[in-house]
Design brief:
With 151 residues, the protein is mainly beta. 9% of the residues lie in helices and 42% in strands. It has 2 helices and 9 strands. Strands 1, 2, 3, 4, 5, 6, 7, 8 and 9 form a 9-stranded mixed β-sheet that branches. The longest helix has 9 residues, at 39-47.
Length: 151
């Protein structure tokens, strides 16, 4: 198992649930998202015991992107170790907290750099490493009037 943190630049994220909405694969209040992995990183993380997941095969609609890449499910918790969440919008950089993080569910994201912290778990003789968000820097798209109105 590993104790090393994982930093990923230009990360591709999906399955966003920063709000913590209950769903088919999510309990109410559990904030999370997926970070997609390349083959080299996948092999390294699996060797270290991280909980790498593989999407199930399914039919894709015309024009729908095929996200069958391996990924890490990343927990976003604010109780014990709250993550640093930084939004970059144009020339503005803002640190946000638990109350504002849900905006990432609907924002148009241009770039993500993040740091994950490992949590080693053991249950019923099985063990692994779950990924939790330590820091995330999200560049979002801004409209043409943002600078004009200063918001």
């Amino acid at each position: 198992m590993t104790g090393r943190q994982l930093a990923i630049e230009n990360a591709k994220i999906g399955y966003k649930n920063f709000t913590g909405v209950e769903g088919k694969y999510n309990k109410e209040g559990e904030r999370n998202f997926a970070v997609f992995l390349d083959d080299e990183l996948t092999a390294s993380l699996e060797q270290d015991g991280w909980n790498v997941k593989y999407p199930k095969d399914r039919e894709f609609e015309p024009g729908e992107e095929d996200f069958r890449q391996p990924y890490l499910q990343v927990g976003v918790g604010f109780k014990s170790f709250p993550p640093k969440v930084v939004i970059v919008a144009g020339e503005s950089t803002t640190v946000i907290g638990e109350e504002e993080i849900s905006m990432l569910d609907w924002a148009t994201i241009l770039n993500v750099d993040l740091v994950l912290r490992p949590y080693t778990w053991t249950v019923n003789g099985k063990s692994g490493v779950k990924a939790y968000l330590k820091a995330i820097y999200v560049t979002i798209e801004v409209d043409q009037f943002r600078d004009k109105y200063g918001v």
